[in-house]
Amino acid sequence: MASVRLQKVLARAGVASRRAAEGLIAAGHVRVDGRVVTELGTKVDPRAARIEVKGQRIVAEAPLYVILHKPRGVVSTMQDPEGRPSVRELLADVPGRVFPVGRLDFATSGVLLATNDGDFSEALIHPRHAVPKTYVVKVHGVMQPNDLDAWRRGIKLEDGQTLPAKVKLLRHEGDKTWFELVITEGRNQMIRRMGDATRFRVMRLARTAFAGLTADGLRPGAWRHLTADEQTALKRDYGVPRRVASPPAEPKPPGAARRPAPASRSRSAKRAVPTRR
């Protein structure tokens, strides 16, 4: 097999995104055949080389693609130095090691993808693909048409002006405004900073769609595998995943085959879009 860049091997094995894998290499956490490797251009034969990260040997896993309805009050990383709840606990029963695709703020709820495919993650968060992210935003203040137009054109922030966005007014509630926002950027705390810059403080924020995928039918904290059709649509639009993977079969509880099937019951799904209160 041809040699492959070490960071790409780590990403494909589900260790982390390719960028995060580069950080692990630079920090001296990766060994190849017993030797610490810190040079990012290093190439290895993934079938022949023994690769270890922090003392654990890396073995390629079957690709996994899941969607999580992240609740508010949860960090979208696999661990938190401050000890706050993280998506690690919510994804603990995924049948494999996964990591989040991008991030959602601690106080933001909604759609978050997770995978063990570093190429998949890298493609969906790279600016060149301009992946759309849809949010429902609640701000303090009554926004007028010209205020919404300013968000459509772009807001000047300390790290540069935001790209044009799609904005749709949903409703006013007293001195509050609800609107839908579609952006293609992923800057840190971007929407909240846009609110501060325009004097419309963001009070509530929920991501209702990412790359066209929604969390409809998932209660906060729940996850599911991406379907083959969803993967196919992503591959068509963004080039990933490289190969569409069949979602793992759901395990049957012991004795399920001997029991009669229960009567179907409808369950009301909690949506990420806030309702009028």
Structure classification? alpha+beta
CA-CA gap between termini: 60 Å
Q: What is the CATH architecture term of the largest domain?
A: 2-Layer Sandwich
Low-confidence stretches: 252-277
Task: Profile the largest sheet.
Answer: 8 strands, mixed
Q: Just give the CATH class of the largest domain.
A: Alpha Beta
Mean pLDDT: 88
- What share of residues are in beta strands? 15-25%
What is the radius of gyration?
21 Å
What's the total number of strands? 16
Helix proportion range: 10-25%
* Global geometry: elongated
By DSSP (H or I, 4+ residues per run), the number of helices equals: 7
CATH superfamily of the largest domain: Pseudouridine synthase I, catalytic domain, N-terminal subdomain
Q: What letter string, H or E per element, gives the SSE order?
A: EHHEEEEEEHEEHEHEEEEHEEH
Domain unit count: 3
CATH topology label of the largest domain? Alpha-Beta Plaits
How would you portray this structure in words?
- The protein is α+β, with helices and mostly antiparallel strands.
- The protein folds into three domains: 4-57, RNA-binding S4 domain (Structural Genomics Hypothetical 15.5 Kd Protein In mrcA-pckA Intergenic Region, Chain A), CATH 3.10.290.10; 65-127 and 213-238, Alpha-Beta Plaits; 132-210, Alpha-Beta Plaits.
- It contains seven helices and 16 strands.
- The strands form four sheets. Strands 7, 8, 9, 10, 13, 14, 15 and 16 form an eight-stranded mixed beta sheet that branches. A four-stranded antiparallel beta sheet has the order 3-2-5-6, with no helix packed on it.
- Strand 2 and strand 3 (35-36) form a beta hairpin.
- The longest helix has 11 residues, at 228-238.
- The chain starts with a strand and ends in a 39-residue tail after the last helix.
- The relative contact order is 0.15.
- Mean pLDDT is 88; it is low at 252-277.
